[in-house]
Queue: 4 jobs
Job 1
Amino acid sequence: MVSEQSTEQGHVSVVVRVRPQTSWEQESNRPRVVQVVSDCLLVFDPEEPRPPAITAGFQGLDSAPRRKGKDLTFAFDRVFGESAAQVEVFENTTEGLLDAVLNGYNCSVFAYGATGAGKTYTMLGSEKDPGIMYLTMAELFRKIEARREQQRYEVLVSYQEVYNEQIHDLLEPKGPLAVREDPEKGVVVSGLSFHQPRTAEQLLKMLARGNQNRTQHPTDINAASSRSHAIFQIYVKRHDAIAQDLQVGKMSLVDLAGSERASVANTRGERLREGANINRSLLALINVINALADAKSKKPHIPYRDSKLTRILKDSIGGNCRTIMIAAVSPSVVSYEDTYNTLKYANRAKEIKLLMKRNTLTLDYHISQYAAICEQLKAEVADLRGRLQAYEGKGPLGNPHGLTHSGPEEAELVRVKEAGFGHPGDRETEAQPELLKPGCPSSSLGGSSLKQDSGRKPGCSITESSGPVLPQGNMPVGQQRMARAQLERLVATVLSVARKQYSVLKAASLLTPDMIMEFEELDHLVPRQSGEPPRAPAADQQLEEPHTVPKVALPLEGPRFANDAERASAAGSSGSPPTLPAPSDFKTPHLPTKRRKRTSGGTTPSGRHRPKRQRKASPPPQQVSSPEGWAVLVGADCTSTPLVERMKSSPTGLPALPPCPPTVTEGRVPLGPSATQNCSTPLPQRGLNTTFELSKNPCAKSGPEFIGWENLQQLPNPLGGPLLPRASMPVFTMKGSSIPRSSSLASRPSMKRRRQVTGSHSLGVPRSRIARLQGNSAKAAQTTDTAGGPSCGTAWRWR
Ligand SMILES: Nc1ncnc2c1ncn2[C@@H]1O[C@H](COP(=O)(O)OP(=O)(O)OP(=O)(O)O)[C@@H](O)[C@H]1O
């Protein structure tokens, strides 16, 4: 692919070279019809008396206007008189193009003129007096040598002729070659050989050999008349060591066959046919020149296809090609008409406009990009190797990831690390894996959730500050106790603030039943969070070996209290922080009714409108077997409540660390009453063990300190069954205020939707990475399936 980087405008340069008279012209004392006035001016057929020098051998020139001078003045870019040396012509024409060729431009030099006008002499020259082709190559090699340190060049040459409308390779003669146009390469002569001369001397030999293959035949005008158009092309490929680009310049040196008049050249037979083809192709060239000169539009029709010559030279005449036309003329009156026509066409060619564009192969840009990509891939491979070695070094044999537990959480943790989140140098992703705690769902580790540090669900990282918390699976017992102590202090602080708020609101009579309920919940939950020693062995086991905990139903809640006083007494005796003062105006019997109304939408007893609960995405709540008994409604999730919003906006600025409800499961299928709650109640027929598991979080515990607000938090069963408790309804949630107050359950569908979205989104990031690590992808996928919707942080975001 060739790109065009820079352009230059200009016109075709036209120079005229007047050859010296031949010996027989001198002997015949023929009058001159060309007078060189200056380096740029000549006068054709000047008005001056000429002696009648027509001899008997040149009857064909009798019609030449000897007496009647045209006296036409032509101006060209350069005019070389009869005494001009080859080097002078070269230095004032082709040499100026060499730099352009070396910089990736196309250039061409044509020698145009009548037969015997000196075209071949100018272009090829002789061994003693080499012409432009040789001088060009010699200078080209010299320039390349001078630039050797900056750039690296390669030179290729080809030499072909167009004879009788057929293309022949002059350096490797074979059959006629076909010409075609390649959309990327331009004009291509199929089968044309390219050669790489190392020195100018090699090139000179090549030219001599090629010229021997060129079709030449003597005519009356030229004893060595070239019967073909010779095209010598030089390709210069430049490799720039700094810019890493590749530029290819092409120079075409063309020695056209001379137009001839059969009557003058006295051609017959084959020579006559040759002359006809020569003239036809030259006519096509003239038409091309005229069309290019007359081109007004951007895409004029140029009749390149009228001849093989013009087809080959399509990209070497005007346009994107610095072009120099060397018009060779004879000064003798014998070539009066030919000289006149040549000067006219040369003068016409001056009008051809050029728009030179540098040819740069974009391939080299790709190569430079490949180099960068290779370096990037190398770095990535090295990084992956290092991480793999780190995993292998940590873990026991057969467990390359250093996991002591085979639970899904570790697999998830590994998956996240493998997904690149722990990439060195990435501060955000470096820190995130440390925030991971076994039990945190996979979805919380996704890209989006990683960016929202605060989005982790409470309990996933137990810390008073924002410092990282090591996964408990790897955390020593001492550290776990310290973390727990921090949690207790934090919860105690939060509880204190809540109490103050409660008192203020109560004094201002601003408490609503929902708020009361929420404070009650807080009061209920906090003691369990705030450091009560775990009672159930399973709970301790969860802390240290969370992945060995079997999936069991949650235990029953603690004993019920008949009233607030009893509840407060029980809480105080348990050693937990004092509970909230029980609202005296709290009427427990009202709440079931209120709940029923709320679930069906409409208006609450207080007159506020409550949105209708969206049951569609919510799993069916567990039916309670007995009105007196509590079943843990694990489907309740951590959703936002106004209390949290108020606390977040509290002047204390304390972080609202929400307690965590018992672990929820993927399906959010409510857990049936456990044996300790109601041994006679059969468990639901659905696969509880596959859908429920206990949270490692101490807040998941339920026990004696659970304040019996059964009536307050009973919810109507949509199936018409007994009322459902919402004991596990979280107090601190993260959702925005758009969620209706006290609508934790109502927000469950949205939570589920959010979880689904989060899960898919977050998993989308690692998935592509995992694809590279086949050995772990299946494990990760399995993890997602088995623990995809569990407890903490699945869709939790701090807002
Ligand atoms: N500048 C010059 N100085 C000396 N001799 C020249 C010069 N130009 C041409 N000649 C001589 O003129 C004769 C014809 O020149 P040349 O063969 O180059 O003509 P031509 O244009 O190539 O003719 P044709 O088209 O038939 O091939 C040759 O003998 C050549 O040596």
Job 2
Amino acid sequence: MAYVSYPASAPLSASTSAVLGYPRIGPQREVKKALEAYWGGKTSQEELLKIAKEQRLQTYKFIKDAGVDVVPTGTFSLYDHVLDASNTFNLIPEQYASSGLDALDTYFAMARGHQKNGVDLPATEMQKWFDSNYHYLVPELSESTEFKINNTKPIDDFLEAKEAGYTARPVLVGPVTLLALGKPGKDAKDAELDPVSLLQKLAPVYGEMLAKLAEAGAEWVQIDEPVLVLDRAQQYAAEFKAAYETIAKAAPSVKIMIATYFNKLESNLEIVKTLPVAGLHVDLDRAPEQLEDVLAAFANTEHVVSLGLVSGRNIWKTDLSAALETAQKAVKALGGNASRVQIASSSSLLHTPITIANEKKLSAEVLDWFSFANEKCAEIATLAAALRDPSSAADALAANEKSIKARRDFEKNSDPAVRERVANIKPEDLARKSPFSVRKEVQKEHLSLPVFPTTTIGSFPQTKEIRQYRARFTKNDITKEEYEKFLEDEIKMVVEKQEALNLDVLVHGEPERNDMVQYFGELLDGFVFTQNAWVQSFGSRYVRPPVVVSDVSRPAPMTVRWSSYAQSLTKKPMKGMLTGPVTILNWSFPRADISKEVQSKQIALALRDEVIDLEKAGVRAVQVDEPAIREGLPLRQKDWAGYLRWAVDSFRLSTSGCSDAMNIASHFCYSDFSLIMKSIIELDADMISIEHSKSGEHLLGAFKKVGYPSHIGPGVFDIHSPRVPSKDEMIGRIKAMAEVLPKDSIWVNPDCGLKTRTWEECTAQLTNMVAAAEECRKSLA
Ligand code: MET
Ligand SMILES: [Zn+2]
């Protein structure tokens, strides 16, 4: 492969390289452990801060040693970078500010609540960070919020790095993004407040911060404004310009690199053109097609264009030769001035695991396809070196080319039978035999349920004993027979408990599952699992997403054994329990070579076979969980329809291979579904259960408004809390539902699975739930 090199007459200026942020957990989960020890009262603040500092310095060293020029500071966080910014700029609601706690504990109180020594504070709200699985803490704003520099974290972090010998580029969450992600505080006078209306009050404080950073020695500051990839940025165009003028004026020596990621700028590029910034970072992993426009916009300026060529969101090796061509094209378009091009990660590397060096179980072949944060740093450095002089990076480029070719060869031959099956999906494969009105009658007979039928969402307490048995089985300390015998006993106990509680549709309790996605990934062909590829979900909570590496298929039935055993123990209907295709995909690292649509349909076909097998085994109801369907929604509204089309089709593909008599349920939690109500209807499930106990009746109102046709079980108690609502409280909830929805369509169930509860808690909760349903049958039906 020939590398296009820029003209020999180009000035001898060199491009630079940067990473936008880095994972915080520590290679051996040091930070996670230190946080949990501190929260558990086992260590001191000093100890926690010491470990955090060690990790930061190790990170800087790593990035620098890998050959990356620009080291970011301020992206390390003890909980969340948005909360850090809220704290730094004093977006602290009164109840926390006046709690009497010290600064760090006030911070943690906002993050996770605080209940000690007479202080009782709830956590602030958490939301998903754009379309990632990372959650940030939602800033609360008030007309009376007094913006000021409340702490000097950005400066401290910069100086700490400087002292250790690194001249870093401090990173701040941008003021527009910070406010746009916020919400009005609890005070009634703020009810109508648009947080962005406070921008001109906040901007001078950012200016002050930049001036202080300049004083400390910062030449560049990276300001993250991912809000610029959303439709709504349009409405802030004028405010954006005014705010950045204020900031730039306050710190004229500072060069601002404004960073956007996760999508393309589109018309918001016009906003950026008006800003007094020295550089723009764009995500060319997610949105390579925006490069032309960006280069055209800055062809005749002096801006540095930061090319996000190495994915911060996925774990695949970068195709360096393709990336290099893009970078060379950019240099050419910017007048051959290489110093105007920076090679960077597409976003912060926060959303990737730390290093493949910690993976001891994956085959060398598979491992060679991957690149985690550390390996990505090396890729960035290689690209920058190659851009200066391709021959200087020849070995690294050749090795990369070999890996990429091996991966491509593998992809081509992955599984032709699966590809063909997906290509031949017919419209009739996406539809149940009869409409719900007909199925309803058949199922009535088949299931013989009372009005207000009661059920649960699937999991029962995952006790210490269950986890111990699983660990012993994984370590080969017990045989498969012993482990399975244990699971059978557990299922038997769960069935007996439900019979005693007098629930109507039973579940087997999911004791065999470590996790609702991992469990299926392990039984399907096409996934691999890591030992240490932890990715932050929120705070100290990390997940290890499975990786889709090849075409997905089901070598053998996955759940039939457990569900049919459970059904054999009872005359009541036993609900089979599957995780839906969209959720499995959204909670995994997807492949990059074929579309998510195709991957989702491959998974759907495997699940379709499972549903058919469950029916053959005598199971009369199957629940296909799709809690992650909402979070896959694209960032730009114009892309929603395309996503929802294949998401809905995938669900229908999974669930329409069975007869009309099969009761297909689905379940949704974690987010507000009112936005995608139409698609929920299109799933054509016979019953859906939704998280509801904390959401007032507005969600039900939405169901009523669209005339939801099927059965629905809005959760009557919060499964995240040990609290046991009284029978009367639950009757109140059922009554409120019955006012909005037809009585014969209502099911009674909790918000979600009970795996995090104790047996004592959930027995008390379910006792009241069943009693409430029984009473409603008499008084309401
Ligand atoms: C996050 S949704 C969880 C559904 C699953 N069936 C459970 O009960 O745990
Ligand atoms: Zn749930």
Job 3
Amino acid sequence: MVTTKSAVSAQLVYSGNANIVVQLPDADYLVRCCVRFDSIDKNNKYTLENIEYIKDQVRPLLGGCLVSLEPEFLKTDDLLLILRNFVPNCDTDEVIALKMEDLTRDTDETIKVDHFTKIHSTKDHHTIVWEFKPKWLCSSGSDPSLCRNCTHNKLKKRDIPYCYAMAIKDPAKVVSRCFSGQNVPERFLRDLRVYLGSEGSILVKLAAVQKRLALEAPQLNRLTSESDVTADLALLMALRDVSCFIRWEANGAISAKIVDVDLKPNSKWRHWATEQSKVDAHCEPVHH
Ligand SMILES: O=P(O)(O)O[C@@H]1[C@@H](OP(=O)(O)O)[C@H](OP(=O)(O)O)[C@H](O)[C@H](OP(=O)(O)O)[C@H]1OP(=O)(O)O
Ligand SMILES: Nc1ncnc2c1ncn2[C@@H]1O[C@H](COP(=O)(O)OP(=O)(O)OP(=O)(O)O)[C@@H](O)[C@H]1O
């Protein structure tokens, strides 16, 4: 059900490229506001479209792995101090946001490991939340061993000695490289290796969906206009840009959720084609 709530002193918790995440006073959840477009009205329209998209297209594929998302109608005035830093045109008095579970609740510290990875934990390390963007979990080009993640990292001059596509084949290697030098319990590392190696892991499920969609979607280097972007391709690109949160408790419990499954605008086709051509032409492609 949609409710109207006031946000007297909302706090900005995170900002991404296309969204901000806000803590409302006294709320035990977070809200996510789209800031991709230059006016609140445009962002609201996109959010309404996105809600339907997630319900109809994404949730059927990811089911319980996907964080719960509900619309939340807020007063622009209550978010203005934050929103005006991200959206130039505050042209309407209502902001349509998405209400979601706070997946890092109760944690006290966050370490940024690299561009794709953060570790959130309580001081006693009894709760650890591993947040990462797995990106492309399987190749879709003619060379199945070419790793888009690692090659793209080279292209962007990111020196990261592992990627999440590797975690499908060799979870132990990724766990040891990602957490090398981090102060985390051995039991956590052991549980994580077992979890990632299981058929039910969030990465295995996401990889399977990406692989299926990649079989149907057109190749990025063949795109010539927005109209070449099929529904499967837009969905595939959304699923290649999600974040995963794996939450571990000292009693061994593990829960995992996916966030950020937003509808990608078809107008991004040129960016996708350009990145693909740069990866294809890279002088040091990475295979694994
Ligand atoms: O193209 P890529 O692989 O560089 O991905 C972009 C991301 O770059 P990164 O993964 O960090 O290297 C990029 O992330 P950053 O802003 O670099 O953190 C965005 O997620 C972008 O999507 P959107 O425009 O916000 O919807 C992402 O664009 P999409 O390709 O997912 O549309
Ligand atoms: N449910 C959640 N619980 C806790 N933190 C969250 C949650 N959702 C998002 N975040 C945090 O907010 C950040 C930005 O969120 P999100 O990924 O939705 O924005 P984005 O603009 O799409 O980011 P990007 O451009 O990196 O794809 C995330 O990296 C994460 O740290």
Job 4
Amino acid sequence: MSIRMLPGMASAEAGPTYARVKGEGVDTTHGAILYLEDISVSFDGFKAINKLSLDISVGELRCIIGPNGAGKTTMMDVITGKTRPTSGTAWFGQTMNLATMTEAQIAHAGIGRKFQRPTVFEQHTVFDNLELAMKMDKRVAPTLFARLTSEQAGKIEAVLRLIRLNGHEARPAGLLSHGQKQWLEIGMLLMQEPQLILLDEPVAGMSDAETARTAELLNELRGKHSIMVVEHDMGFVTEIARQGIVTVLHEGSVLAQGRMDEVQADERVIEVYLGR
Ligand SMILES: Nc1ncnc2c1ncn2[C@@H]1O[C@H](COP(=O)(O)OP(=O)(O)OP(=O)(O)O)[C@@H](O)[C@H]1O
């Protein structure tokens, strides 16, 4: 991460920002869950994001790639309300203007983000982590110590299978491998049923086998959730992009967009990656 901190800024890794509840009232009648229009972000006059426009369709798995410093993290910070755009607009569905919402309101509306570094509750078991994530929903907080309904238990079971941690549910999360912790955190996001999931470098630090399993996991989520994945690992991106759109960011703008084979063959993309 090439993030320079300015006084008063919160750390990008400050902690989990889970979407709290399934988004209600997200108007996706025109088919898009997210619209970024002409977004710019300046830090002391330096344009980290420069007139960026991008939209994500409902159920799409969009991969975002780009060299270091391209503005990928800053873009996610704008979507989650951590950084305010200097100009431009960001819409969640047709009607929610993200620029007027706080980080907590955006999370509550249904945008869930997973940071690069896993932030699971290490002392708690895998099962408890998933249960706690589900019960962070403020509306059910009074039932924090109540028994799970069979529907809730079934949901946890389904997520455990999906994240390949069935059989590990009684283990303290602190004893999991790095990859397993990342899957658990994805599971915790899923428990909250976000409308849009943002994953920041999900396979960073994973073994090849863990990376392959993460690709399988994301392929299983395809079509069921709207997901934006920022990743440097091109093999992984190729696995999950399939025939979908890959967006290449460079100097804060969209440099190229298309299928993975198309963007990989694009001279401008080759140039920024190889620095020719
Ligand atoms: N808080 C900040 N203050 C000043 N400059 C910043 C700040 N955050 C990011 N930048 C700069 O903005 C540019 C974009 O950074 P950003 O972290 O969004 O890029 P990135 O594409 O996520 O890079 P990487 O792949 O290395 O994580 C970089 O030049 C970075 O140094």
